[in-house]
């Protein structure tokens, strides 16, 4: 299944589950709205909202595709508007439960939904909490004083946690996003995993806590854990996250990617090396000797390997299916959850840059040489240069034999070469550009025939 069809199946289930809940609870109307980043296709979806209208209030199931900084993905939560006007302030369900003094121990903000079954379970789990509160929600919506008290409660939570000191503020969409990220963060993931003690420690690190969070701490410390039995298809995905809160990567998942680098580097390298020798063949036309033909081509393989890394993003599923067939479907679900359409767009751009860079490296390495023609030579020693200056052989004073050289440590190394000594005093040591065994029989003899003195 492609990413697009995979995401569409989750979104379709969100729509279906919300409408089913509306019908089951005698809702008057269910309206689904979506927000996209750019073109209206599944990979670009930011969020979906299902607004279910009742006689005196509106229930909002919210789906967030990707959280801030790419740490949380595919999240479902819920808000209540206590009257049906557009100006009514949506109150996140956790605040409603605390205001109603209800100990709801099932998850109310559920991340990492990776399939349609998980979406159905998430809506069902949160929906059951709403059903438990229906009488109190209805009572609040019918009482103006209690509605105002609920609103004041929410605004006070806003002020306390964000340390707002004035009453002149507006609850922004950013704050609602912040709440979603907060109630799906490390502590709540640990709680869904059943690691209640670690969840307590993680939540206690928050300096400013919502009253709902203080309630959850009391419940967890008293031996009442979070009940994730209603969301088994989602709870299993929490193992994708380490207890520290970062994404878990296993060797089993990474091995196919690593292997694909070496496999892909072979055909890519063949293309680049073929291009390299084609370029050197063009340069050899009417040439006495071209340095570095066999010396520089390994750089093309380095470029091919880097290109293979970029290409492996788009072939990862094929290699995963080949090497870890048993876990292939789960791995693909995980990848689709963590990597949105933005990742695909970025990698396409990155691959284009890398591919252009690889071809450029091939051009530069193929022309990184000294090209000796019949009457002179082209000096193309600068790497980022396709064609360098041309010098006639009359510019060469003599050719000097260099029997050895010193390395950076001062040691003498017996690697002989020849050096072109120009009349302007510049010395061009051929050691840097070719093997002496390759050029001595052809080039040195030719230069000598041109009347250039060879000093040994």
* Helicity range: 40-55%
Poorly predicted runs are none
Largest sheet: 5 strands, antiparallel
**Rg from Cα:** 34 Å
- Give the helices and strands as they follow along the chain: HEEEEEHHHHHHHHHEHHHHEEEEEEEEHE
End-to-end separation in angstroms reads: 71 Å
Instruction: Please tally the helical runs, counting DSSP H or I stretches of 4 or more residues.
Output: 15
Mean pLDDT: 90
Number of strands: 15
- Largest sheet strand order: 1-2-3-4-5
Strand content: 15-25%
Globular, elongated, flat, extended or rod-shaped: what is the shape? elongated
- Briefly note the structural class of the backbone: alpha+beta
What does this entry look like structurally?
- The structure is a single chain.
- Helices cover 51% and strands 16% of the residues.
- It is built from 15 helices and 15 strands.
- The protein has helices at residues 3-24, 93-99, 116-142, 144-162, 173-182, 186-193, 196-204, 211-221, 232-235, 251-283, 293-296, 298-323, 328-338, 341-366, 436-449, and strands spanning 29-36, 45-53, 58-66, 73-81, 91-92, 289-290, 369-372, 376-380, 390-392, 396-402, 405-406, 412-413, 417-422, 427-429, 453-455.
- Strand 3 (58-66) and strand 4 (73-81) form a beta hairpin.
- The longest helix has 33 residues, at 251-283.
- The chain is elongated, with a radius of gyration of 34 Å.
- The chain starts with a helix and ends with a strand.
- 32% of the residues are buried.
- The mean pLDDT is 90.
């Amino acid at each position: 299944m492609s990413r697009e069809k995979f995401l569409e199946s989750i979104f379709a289930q969100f729509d279906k589950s919300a409408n089913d809940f509306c019908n089951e609870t005698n809702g008057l109307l269910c309206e689904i709205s979506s927000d996209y980043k750019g073109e209206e296709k599944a990979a670009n979806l930011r969020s979906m909202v299902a607004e279910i209208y009742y006689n005196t209030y509106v229930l909002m199931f919210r789906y967030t595709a990707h959280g801030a900084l790419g740490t949380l993905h595919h999240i479902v939560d819920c808000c209540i508007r206590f009257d049906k006007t557009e100006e009514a302030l949506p109150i996140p369900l956790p605040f409603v439960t605390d205001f109603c003094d209800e100990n709801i121990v099932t998850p109310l903000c559920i991340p990492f939904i990776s399939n349609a079954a998980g979406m159905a379970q998430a809506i069902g789990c949160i929906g059951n909490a709403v059903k438990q509160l229906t009488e109190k929600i209805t009572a609040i919506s019918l009482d103006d004083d209690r509605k105002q008290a609920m609103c004041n409660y929410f605004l006070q939570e806003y002020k306390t946690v964000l340390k707002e000191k004035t009453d002149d503020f507006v609850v922004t969409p950013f704050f609602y996003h912040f709440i979603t990220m907060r109630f799906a963060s490390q502590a709540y993931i640990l709680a869904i995993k059943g690691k209640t003690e670690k969840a307590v420690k993680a939540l206690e690190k928050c300096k400013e806590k919502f009253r709902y969070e203080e309630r959850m701490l009391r419940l967890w410390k008293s031996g009442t854990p979070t009940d994730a039995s209603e969301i088994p298809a989602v709870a299993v995905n929490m193992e994708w996250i380490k207890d520290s809160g970062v994404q878990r990567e296993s060797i089993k998942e990474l091995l196919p990617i690593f292997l694909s680098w070496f496999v892909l580097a072979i055909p890519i390298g063949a293309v680049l090396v073929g291009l390299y020798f084609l370029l050197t063949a063009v340069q050899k036309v009417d040439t006495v000797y071209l340095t570095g033909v066999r010396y520089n081509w390994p750089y093309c393989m380095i470029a091919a390997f880097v290109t293979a890394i970029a290409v492996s993003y788009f072939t990862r599923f094929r290699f995963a299916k080949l090497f870890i067939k048993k876990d292939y479907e789960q791995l693909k679900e995980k990848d689709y959850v963590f990597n949105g359409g933005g990742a695909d767009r970025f990698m396409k751009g990155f691959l284009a840059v890398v591919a252009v860079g690889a071809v450029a490296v091939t051009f530069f390495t193929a022309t990184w040489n000294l090209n000796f023609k019949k009457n002179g030579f082209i000096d193309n020693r600068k790497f980022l240069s396709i064609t360098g200056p041309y010098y006639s052989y009359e510019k060469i004073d003599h050719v000097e034999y260099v029997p050895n050289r010193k390395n950076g440590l001062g040691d003498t190394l017996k690697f002989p070469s020849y050096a072109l000594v120009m009349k302007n005093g510049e010395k061009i040591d051929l050691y840097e550009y070719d093997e002496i065994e390759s050029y001595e029989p052809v080039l040195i003899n030719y230069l000598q025939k041109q009347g250039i003195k060879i000093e040994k």
